[in-house]
Amino acid sequence: MNEVSERETAPVREPRLPLLQMLLVSVQHVLLMYGGAVAVPLIVGQAAGLSREEIAFLINADLLVAGIATVVQSMGIGPVGIRMPVMMGASFAAVSSMVVMAGMPGVGMPGIFGATIAAGFFGLLIAPFVCKIVRLFPPLVTGTVITAIGLSLFPVAVNWAGGGSGTGQFGALPYLGVAAAVLAVILLINQFLRGFWVNVSVLIGMGMGYVLAGSLGMVDLSGLDAAPAVQVVTPNHFGAPQFLLAPILSMCLVVVIIFVESAGMFLALGKITGQEVDPRQLRRGLLCDAGATFLAGFMNTFTHSSFAQNIGLVQMTGVRSRYVTAIAGLLLISLSLLPKAAFLVASIPAAVLGGAGIAMFGMVAATGIKILQEADIGDRRNQLLVAVSIGLGMVPVVRPEFFAHLPHWMEPITHSGIAVATLSAVTLNLLFNVLGGPERHALTGAAHH
User: Fold this and answer.
1) In the chain, count of helices (H) and strands (E)?
2) Which residue ranges run through the membrane (predicted)?
3) Phi, psi (rounded to 5 degrees) for 358
């Protein structure tokens, strides 16, 4: 009990920033994760044949749950929440499964939400056991996973920078110009300015990019007037959840994959913020993931997890305060109640996000490379571990159809480069180092705690 209370009252490593600066850095986090937050309800809603109004409701529901989960993850409530600067949102790991469910007779949205609730409950049950895997993530594995996270995010940034997948002129010069301008502003601020300006460099770059994109006619505000001023998300908007065995089993597997991804990301964030993530902290973080998923099913949204791209922002700005992400969570809750404000954020052109994404996702990969320096990377077998794990992690990124002929239930694993790289790194570390005998432990001492 003393140990827990001591953890809960421990001061954060990053001092609290002035209110305005904290608010601006929080806005950066919201802008960065917003595209991912709205993408999942957009994809699933369209697959289910929902109307534009119903999809808008799905988006607001997702923003509400993401905001609540972010606040809990950042600040902690009882035994839940890792108390680190984490942004939460709907996970892409479940998208392929939910698209299939949306088209299945007798499943639809109530079946998806029922499976989400059941998967969240399953996650709450297994979190205390999964947290023990932290010892399977020495710097050798953690560095490999974080590098793979950064590399697997690059296609997202490149897609944004080219104008987004929905554009008919992908890679057109105006899109590339806007993305380059955003990136140039971020780089120049980090080179010539200090302190506050560096902390909000991404926001400034995106703001200038938004103005430039608007002058080029890229900003589409059609439909803004039709959006209601205020809208409250109500539970079970699409009817009572339905609990069907096949969807539930599929979503439970998704939760396991989310836990593997989240474990890697929490450990990555611990390295960036200078905090050691022990099994107890990891359990708190995973319980928040599972709890958010459980709540999400009742509130008309989907499985939730931490967002890797925001870890890049923490590294990029150097602002490691959990109060920043807690405020960002409150902003998400506000956006869920104000559809017009949410609409304006959603109008940010993809090219603007792309310029910022190239810098931030690259910073994630750079952090992984830095962590690998703590391991015995001169050893040939450790080099093989890094090479093979990153290579396998890139397979779903480079050729998503590579695993198309494997069983359907494996899709949450095979469609996630992060999950593939993590499983490979953990397995090869067990083979090469843990099971390699005392002489291997002596050789790889730098790779173990």
Assistant:
1) 19, 2
2) 20-43, 55-72, 84-104, 110-130, 137-158, 170-189, 196-219, 239-260, 323-345, 351-372, 384-404, 416-435
3) -60, -45
pTM of this prediction? 0.72
SS3 89: strand
How far is residue 339's CA from residue 230's CA, in Å, rounded to a whole number? 6
Torsion on CA atoms 164, 166, 171, 173, rounded to nearest 10: -90
Cβ proximity of 374 and 184 under 8 Å: no
Residue recorded with tokens 């809750």 = 333
C-alpha to C-alpha distance for 88 and 326, rounded to whole angstroms: 11
Residues 6+ apart with CB under 8 A from 440: 432, 433
Q: What are phi and psi of 193, to 5 degrees?
A: -120, 170
Structure-token pair, residue 55: 């999809």
For the stretch 49-64, pLDDT in tens is 777 778 888 888 999 9
| C-beta neighbour count of 191 within 10 angstroms | 8
**CA geometry: angle 300, 110, 113, nearest 5 deg:** 50
| List of residues 6+ apart from 431 with CB closer than 8 A | none
Q: 332: which residues sit within 8 A by CB, 6+ positions away?
A: 30, 37, 63, 64, 66, 67, 70
Q: What is the pLDDT of residues 76-113, one digit of tens each?
A: 999 999 999 999 998 877 776 787 788 777 788 999 99
Distances (CA, A) of 94 to 23, 99, 255: 32, 9, 9
**Rounded distance, CA 177 to CA 199, Å?**
24
- The span from the first CA to the last CA of the chain, in angstroms, equals 26
Query: Cα–Cα distance between 315 and 405 in angstroms, integer?
Result: 38
